[in-house]
Structure formats: structure tokens, C-alpha cells
């Protein structure tokens, strides 16, 4: 997107603060939410509310918001893969994973994106710096999951299963990013996000009915606080700030959220949930962050926009 030559500096700093802090804190909010709500309940209510509110705002602002049939089909696929599968997998996994570990596993999305870009028709080759990042990143995953693997060998496989679900959800998110990058929409980006959230919420609602996953919901203060926080700050406010940044700041700078958000999630988990990492997990955390930095800062061979850029323009915490 074009970079404005005279952007409002204070507004840009506030938008970065929103993207860093609020998206980094969504892992904590999801953890609090899933303690009292089944995962599909939290996912469906969150995305249905956010989608309806974003579409209502688009209508009030008179932005183009009605997709044609072809656009609608693509928005359904993107919403289901990106939010219904990608984001909800994190919600489900946080029943068994520390929030910081979940955030660090989600941080591999740029690595997935870079690898997919290589094999796509008319895709982009990755420079040496990026390949180094890929290798470091997947080594970091092994370090992160090592304690869970050891527990699995002792008979408790919940953490390693949850980690696998998270990584699978991250792949769904990346696949949706590929489709989004190769699609053209005539409606506004804000409205497109609203439709995607709406369809992601509908998918969660359907899964809720099919799996009968509505039992055990405790709609008290904690449930409503976490849900409304995710709707207001995780989806609407921060997404608006993110769109503003993409319009006024270079994408390479906006991409820093990919390795700042996991750090925020880890810090909040340590302070508020008393989560602790063992030494090997700290090695994995450092490796993941270095890998994401190397991949996101490594320009593709042609210098053209790639699926990595498209993934940056989506934001998994949305």
C-alpha cells in the first residue's frame, strides 16, 4: 500500500501500541475465555459479534460492502479457513497449552508462508537469509515441543496434540492468506474482514451444534469480559489500527508485530498466569523469534509482493 508522506506521528505510535499490546494480549483473553466457555462457543460468539458490528460500521460509513457471488464464495472459504479453523484451533489448544507457547507456535505462520510461496506457480524464491530463518525456525519448534514430547512418552499426550492442532490451524491460516492474496475484491477491506469474521462465526456455530460443544458454558463476568475484549480490542479496534498502519507505514515495519506479539503473550502469561518455561523452551522461543525476523526481513528474489506480505496484512490475532 502507498505510504503517506505526512502521517500523524502520534496516531501511528498509538496504532503500533494497539497492534503490539492488544493482539499480543488476545492469547491471554482466549485463555480466560476458554476456562469458562467451550472453544466453539467462544469462537462463534466472538466472530459473529465482531462480524456484525464491522459490517454495520461499513454500512454506516457508506463503504462498499456487498460482494458479488464470486467474491462471496472466496470470503466464505477465507473466513472458514482463517478464523473458523485457524483462530479457533488456538482457542481449543489453549485448554492444554500455556498462552506463551501457543503464541510462539502461531509465530511460525510467516515460515509456512515463505515455503508455500516457493512452490506456487509464479511464486517467489527465497534468499539465503530466509532459508537460514526457515531452518532455525523449525529447529526452534522442536525445542519448544521437547518437554511435551517427553510428557507424551510418559502417557500424557495432551500438550503435544494441542501443539499439533495449533500448527495445523496455522497452516489453515496460511492457506487462506494464499487465497486472499490471489483474489481481487471490489468491496472495502474493512467490510471484507467483517464478512470473513461472520462466516468464521457461522462455521464455529455449526461445529458447536455438530459436536454438541455447547455444554458447560458459564456465562458470568469472566466469560463476557474475555469475549467482549476479543471483539472490541482483538478484532475491531486493533484491526482498524492495523489497516491505518498499512496505509501510512511501510509493510516491513508493520511486519514487526509477528515477533513482538509472542513476546507480549509470553510476558503476560508469566505475570498474570504464573506460566514458566524450562531452559530448552527458552532456546526454542529465541530461535522462533530470530527465524521470524530473518524470514520477514528477507526480501524475495524479485522484490515483488508475496504471500508473506499478504499474511502480514491479515494478522492471525484478528
From TrEMBL:
<feature type="transmembrane region" description="Helical">
    <location>
        <begin position="99"/>
        <end position="119"/>
    </location>
</feature>
<keyword id="KW-0812">Transmembrane</keyword>
<comment type="similarity">
    <text>Belongs to the EamA transporter family.</text>
</comment>
<feature type="transmembrane region" description="Helical">
    <location>
        <begin position="131"/>
        <end position="148"/>
    </location>
</feature>
<feature type="transmembrane region" description="Helical">
    <location>
        <begin position="257"/>
        <end position="273"/>
    </location>
</feature>
<feature type="domain" description="EamA">
    <location>
        <begin position="166"/>
        <end position="296"/>
    </location>
</feature>
<dbReference type="InterPro" id="IPR050638">
    <property type="entry name" value="AA-Vitamin_Transporters"/>
</dbReference>
<feature type="domain" description="EamA">
    <location>
        <begin position="13"/>
        <end position="145"/>
    </location>
</feature>
<feature type="transmembrane region" description="Helical">
    <location>
        <begin position="12"/>
        <end position="30"/>
    </location>
</feature>
<feature type="transmembrane region" description="Helical">
    <location>
        <begin position="160"/>
        <end position="179"/>
    </location>
</feature>
<feature type="transmembrane region" description="Helical">
    <location>
        <begin position="72"/>
        <end position="93"/>
    </location>
</feature>
<feature type="transmembrane region" description="Helical">
    <location>
        <begin position="223"/>
        <end position="245"/>
    </location>
</feature>
<protein>
    <submittedName>
        <fullName>Drug/metabolite transporter (DMT)-like permease</fullName>
    </submittedName>
</protein>
<feature type="transmembrane region" description="Helical">
    <location>
        <begin position="279"/>
        <end position="296"/>
    </location>
</feature>
<feature type="transmembrane region" description="Helical">
    <location>
        <begin position="36"/>
        <end position="60"/>
    </location>
</feature>
<dbReference type="InterPro" id="IPR000620">
    <property type="entry name" value="EamA_dom"/>
</dbReference>
<dbReference type="GO" id="GO:0016020">
    <property type="term" value="C:membrane"/>
</dbReference>
<dbReference type="Pfam" id="PF00892">
    <property type="entry name" value="EamA"/>
</dbReference>
<keyword id="KW-0472">Membrane</keyword>
<dbReference type="InterPro" id="IPR037185">
    <property type="entry name" value="EmrE-like"/>
</dbReference>
<feature type="transmembrane region" description="Helical">
    <location>
        <begin position="191"/>
        <end position="211"/>
    </location>
</feature>
<keyword id="KW-1133">Transmembrane helix</keyword>
Amino acid at each position: 500500500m502507498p505510504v503517506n508522506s505526512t502521517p500523524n506521528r502520534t496516531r501511528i505510535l498509538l496504532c503500533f501500541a494497539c497492534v503490539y499490546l492488544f493482539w499480543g494480549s488476545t492469547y491471554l483473553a482466549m485463555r480466560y475465555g476458554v476456562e469458562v466457555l467451550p472453544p466453539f462457543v467462544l469462537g462463534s460468539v466472538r466472530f459473529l459479534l465482531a462480524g456484525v458490528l464491522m459490517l454495520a460500521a461499513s454500512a454506516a460509513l457508506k463503504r462498499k460492502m456487498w460482494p458479488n457471488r464470486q467474491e462471496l464464495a472466496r470470503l466464505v472459504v477465507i473466513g472458514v479457513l482463517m478464523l473458523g479453523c485457524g483462530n479457533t484451533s488456538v482457542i481449543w489448544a489453549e485448554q492444554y497449552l500455556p498462552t506463551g507457547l501457543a503464541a510462539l507456535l502461531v509465530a511460525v505462520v510467516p515460515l509456512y508462508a515463505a515455503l508455500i510461496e516457493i512452490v506456487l506457480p509464479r511464486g517467489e524464491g527465497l534468499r539465503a537469509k530466509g532459508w537460514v530463518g526457515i531452518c532455525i525456525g523449525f529447529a526452534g519448534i522442536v525445542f519448544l515441543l521437547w518437554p511435551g514430547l517427553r510428557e507424551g512418552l510418559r502417557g500424557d499426550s495432551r500438550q503435544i496434540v494441542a501443539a499439533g492442532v495449533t500448527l495445523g490451524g496455522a497452516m489453515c491460516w496460511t492457506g487462506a492468506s494464499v487465497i486472499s492474496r490471489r483474489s481481487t475484491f471490489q468491496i472495502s477491506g474493512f467490510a471484507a474482514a467483517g464478512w470473513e469474521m461472520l462466516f468464521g462465526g457461522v462455521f464455529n456455530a455449526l461445529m458447536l451444534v455438530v459436536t454438541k460443544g455447547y455444554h458447560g458454558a458459564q456465562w458470568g463476568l469472566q466469560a463476557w469480559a474475555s469475549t467482549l475484549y476479543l471483539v472490541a480490542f482483538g478484532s475491531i479496534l486493533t484491526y482498524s489500527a492495523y489497516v491505518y498502519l498499512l496505509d501510512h507505514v511501510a509493510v516491513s515495519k508493520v511486519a514487526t508485530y509477528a515477533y513482538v506479539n509472542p513476546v507480549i503473550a509470553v510476558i503476560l502469561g508469566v505475570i498474570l498466569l504464573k506460566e514458566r518455561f524450562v531452559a530448552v523452551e527458552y532456546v526454542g522461543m529465541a530461535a522462533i523469534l530470530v527465524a521470524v525476523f530473518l524470514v520477514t526481513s528477507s526480501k524475495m528474489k524479485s522484490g515483488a509482493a508475496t504471500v508473506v506480505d499478504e499474511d502480514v496484512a491479515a494478522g492471525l490475532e484478528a
